[in-house]
Amino acid sequence: MKTQAIMQQLAAKHPGEAEYLQAVEEVLNSIEEVYNQHPEFEQAKIVERMVEPDRIFTFRVTWVDDAGQVQTNLGYRVQFNSAIGPYKGGLRFHVAVNPSMLKFLGFEQTFKNALTTLPMGGGKGGSDFDPIGKSDAEIMRFCQAFMLELWRCIGPDQDIPAGDVGVGGREIGYLNGMYQKLSRQYHTGVLTGKGMTWGGSILRPEATGYGALYFTQHVLHQAGKDIKGKRIAISGFGNVAWGACKKAVELGAQVIAVSGPDGVCAIENGITPEMIDYMLVMRSSNRNKVQDMADKFPQQAQFIAGKKAWSQKCDIALPCAFQNELSEDDARELVKNGTWCCCEVSNMGCQPGAIHFFQSQKGFLFAPGKAVNAGGVATSGLEMTQNAEHISWTGKEVDERLHHIMESIHEQCVRFGTQKDGTIDYVKGANIAGFMKVAQAMLEQGLV
Ligand code: GLU
User: Fold this and answer.
1) What pTM does this model have?
2) Hey, which of 176, 183, 354, 434 has its CA 20 to 30 A from 256?
């Protein structure tokens, strides 16, 4: 297998699908060497099959806004790979959603889910619907219209969607209500991220952020460091950033910045629990402005318009917002200001140039999203187990399992990513570990 040759073919077949091609190239570069030691993979054309989704559903979503105007959006579900279990992955509602974005996310999800140790294949879906500025009633009508098409594609042993950017507990509620109405199936297992009174798992809302901090702790411990007292810059203020802030503070770190599309809030003395709670209000307002934090807490937070979280002096950078949100210039600025660790929490949050720059800095600790943020989907997997058994575990039980899973993902990265000089390449480690599992499962199940 030659990465460059495969990439040329893929680029010709899928012109303009930049995010998808970026995600595939990153994985193929990591696995090329190992792959070529397995002629049985080459013979079964595992890579050529693995980079294409099993199928994509595309549908029109028509709904009526509060002004009585008819609106039309596009809806998608990408069922990427089911070799190790039913399709599993979130739904993203964002104005920039298109097939390329969902294919990159579905591809990444396949390896991430493999790393969790749970039997889940990879999928992703969503819509170019823009939730910014929408009323609650509009969100409900859109979710219902979206489910009108999606319900035929999903099922508890087939494809289990969840949340992602723009889709949280409220949206999952509206989607689940409509699914039950249409399908007349009243089980709890078709979506994860559900509310606590109707099949949700304790800690699922916090899980991505908590898992990311557990993983960061492992990365630091491995390097002989401790998270206590460290200054952390976080981008975003949505569900993932919220969970990350909560756990960072609990572990004794200081979150000195959160950001949004409008700028950054510098929080010199560290974020407080009241400010973290306020992030939930900011998200449900659908305003998407981090300035609201500084307006509410003028003593603690200073808003700087147009700046990213990466402009702030910190030890650890945690991108928690969107793909490609941290550029090579940002990486250089961070390192210049003394940052020595970046754990990607958003999916593909760092641009390739940023990753290469971080990795070129001696002693810099970098870990990729598919390992760092896997706690979210892992806890979705735990929610599925509880639903299938018709029971609910305690918070302690879920947290222990999440801890254990993140530890196991870290171990897999160390196993497959330890270099000759003893350093750990977490990108390589995560990609090879995830790939080997999916490739083996595909090989054993024949040409399907
Ligand atoms: N959207 C999340 C992710 O990127 C969670 C997916 C899920 O829980 O299925 O992994």
Assistant:
1) 0.97
2) 354
